[in-house]
Each structure stands twice: as C-alpha cells, then as structure tokens.
C-alpha cells in the first residue's frame, strides 16, 4: 500500500492515555462514593458538599475523557489501517477488542457483580460461578471496546467502498472559528440524539445519548492523522479555549441553582425538549474543548516528563479492563469504614490506581498477552 505513514506513537499522546485511564478509575470510584451516575456498587454521600464535589468531578470527566479516548483511537486507526491493510487491520481489531469484551463480559463482569450483589447466605465465589454457568454477560466499561470495534468496522467499510474520498484534514481546521463551528455541531447533535435516547438509558449495550461526541471525535481523529494535527496544537489555540472551559464549568450548576434544583425543582438535563437538556448538550463541548486542547499542548511541550510514564503507558488498556472488580472489591472490603465520602474516594481511588496498574504489569507478562493487551 502506498503512502504509508510513519507509525511510531509520540510519547506525549501515550502519557495522555495514562492520565485518561487514571481518570476512568477515579471516576468510577467517585460514583461509588456518592457522585451522580451508574456503577456496580454505590454508597450514599456523607454530605451535600461531598456529593456535589464528586458529581462536579464526574461531570467534567464525562464531558471530555471518553471522547478523548475515541479521538486518540481514531488518530491511530488511520495509521494502523495504512500500515497493515484491510484484512490485518480487521483481524487486529477483532483480537485486541473482541477478546477483552468476551473475557470481561463472561468472566470479570459477573465477578464484579458478585462482589457487589452476592445474596445473603451465599459466597462471592458460588454466586460468581452461578452467574457464569447461566451465561450472564455484563459488558461494564468494556462498552468502550465494543463501540470502538463498531467504529473500526464503519471506518474500514468507508475506506474500502470510498477509496477516492480524502481522509486528510488541512491544518487550517485548527482555527478558533472552525473549532467553534465543530463545538456547535457537537452540542446540537447531542441534543438531537437525546430526544431519542436520553443519557442514562441504553440501546444495544451502549448509552447512545453520549455518542455525538464519540462519533465526531473518532472520525475527526481518523482524518487528522495524516496532517499530524494533534501534534500541532499550540498555546495560541489552546489557552483561549481553556479559559472558555473554565468559565463554562460553573454555568450549568449556576443555572440549576437559579432554577430551584436545590429546592427540589425540576432540572432534567438528560434529554427532551427542555432548556436544561439543551443547556447540558451545549455545556459539554465547551467544557471539553479547552481541556482536550490544553492536554494536547501541555503534554507535548513538557520538557522533562516523568520517566515512569513510559512504563505505565503499555499497561493502560489492561488496567482499564481489570479496574471494575478492583474498585468494587476495595469498596466492599472497606464498607465498614464510616469516613467522609471525599476521604474514602481519595483512599480507595489511590489504592485502585496502584492495584489496577500493578496487576496489569503482571498480566502483560503472560505468554501471548501482548498480542491482545
């Protein structure tokens, strides 16, 4: 295949992946201790302040972190496709995404459920075995791999059926005007999708309400690869959008307070023809953009990055896969601690990071593991 691009991964993008993986683990820990959201195990927040801060943390994460995962995945999908060709690209995706989906869905997912929900009178192990023998499937966070597999198939089909279509984006797209236009499309698409499927609801194992950003960012990443656009984010683009993000973050919460949400008034942001739903749909992209641009700029220009990043980067996907039973297991183990939710979040979150990456370091050394993980 002609015009094969250089495939080496730049170090700063791998460091961003480490940060995003850590945020995923902390995000789920925050939900376990009182933030808004769904998770296997949930405890009531110890107070209004703790619940608000944990929810704020998760809301900001939700606005950008999974979308940025898809952006990076798309960025490297183009390079992988043009290096490996159609057949090898698809086989690689089936192996690296399909196998973890099956292992988590039929083994680790039921185990996490068993840790969280074992009925009185049964052991975790017997309930886990019962779930597995009955074919219980729980995709958990591996919905990301499932969605990425679907996106990869769509990308492959488009490249094969439309070979003359250019997948090159000009550096001119990195302008304030074009970024603003992209964010408006993102927000309007999210609002439209949530008229059909509000956030928090699933269709085909996926929370479709969040997929406007995932789709747009994945295919933007695919088209940005040839021009190495993610490696050309500069301060003059990133910094103004960082300020916009910073100013946007409190706006949704201020709107909710002014609308009487703290007094029990209706402030439904998940979807539908409501101003709060529209505000939330537009809030997300304008929060996410500055954060993503700042990460791309600051991580690239960092003069002396911590050397340990290089050791953590190859462990990210494995840590991502195994973190649910780690987080839930620690939550169950420490359930009798009656500490402040924020303190529990800090303790369990830190322990979950150390254990998830530590176990991942062992698993990747198993024979054949590197072909998948």
UniProtKB/TrEMBL annotation:
Keyword Transmembrane: yes
Domain of life: Bacteria
Domain Acyltransferase: 12-359
TM ranges: 18-40, 52-76, 97-116, 136-158, 179-196, 208-225, 237-258, 278-300, 312-334, 340-364
InterPro entries for the chain: Acyl_transf_3_dom, Glucan_succinyl_AcylTrfase
Pfam families the record matches: Acyl_transf_3
Keywords attached to this entry: Acyltransferase, Membrane, Transferase, Transmembrane, Transmembrane helix
Molecular function GO terms recorded: acyltransferase activity
Keyword Transmembrane helix among record annotations: yes
Name of the protein in its database record: Acyltransferase family protein
């Amino acid at each position: 295949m002609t015009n094969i691009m250089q495939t080496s991964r730049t170090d700063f993008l791998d460091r961003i992946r480490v940060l995003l993986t850590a945020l995923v683990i902390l995000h789920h820990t925050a939900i376990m201790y009182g933030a808004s959201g769904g998770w296997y195990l949930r405890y009531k927040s110890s107070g209004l302040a703790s619940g608000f801060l944990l929810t704020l943390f998760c809301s900001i994460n939700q606005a950008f972190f999974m979308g940025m995962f898809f952006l990076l995945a798309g960025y490297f999908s183009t390079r992988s496709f043009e290096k490996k060709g159609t057949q090898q690209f698809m086989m690689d995706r089936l192996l690296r995404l399909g196998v973890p989906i099956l292992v988590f869905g039929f083994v680790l997912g039921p185990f996490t459920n068993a840790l969280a929900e074992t009925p009185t009178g049964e052991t975790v192990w017997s309930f886990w075995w019962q779930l597995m023998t009955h074919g219980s499937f729980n995709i958990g966070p591996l919905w990301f791999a499932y969605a990425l597999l679907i996106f990869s198939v769509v990308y492959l089909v488009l490249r094969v059926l439309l070979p003359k279509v250019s997948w090159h984006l000009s550096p001119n797209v990195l302008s304030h005007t074009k970024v603003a236009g992209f964010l408006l499309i993102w927000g309007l698409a999210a609002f439209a999708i949530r008229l059909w499927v509000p956030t928090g609801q699933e269709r085909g194992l996926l929370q479709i309400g969040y997929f406007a950003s995932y789709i747009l960012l994945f295919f933007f990443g695919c088209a940005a690869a040839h021009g190495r656009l993610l490696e050309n984010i500069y301060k003059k683009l990133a910094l103004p959008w960082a300020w916009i993000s910073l100013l946007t973050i409190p706006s949704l919460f201020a709107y909710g307070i002014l609308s009487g949400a703290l007094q029990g008034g209706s402030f439904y942001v998940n979807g539908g023809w409501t101003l709060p739903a529209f505000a939330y749909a537009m809030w997300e992209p304008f929060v996410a953009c500055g954060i993503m641009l700042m990460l791309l700029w600051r991580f690239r220009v960092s003069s002396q990055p911590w050397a340990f990043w290089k050791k953590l980067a190859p462990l990210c996907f494995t840590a991502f896969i195994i973190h649910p039973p780690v987080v839930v297991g620690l939550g169950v183990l420490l359930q009798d601690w009656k500490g402040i939710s924020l303190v529990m979040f800090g303790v369990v979150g830190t322990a979950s990071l150390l254990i998830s990456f530590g176990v991942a370091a062992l698993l990747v050394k198993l024979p054949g593991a590197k072909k998948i993980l």
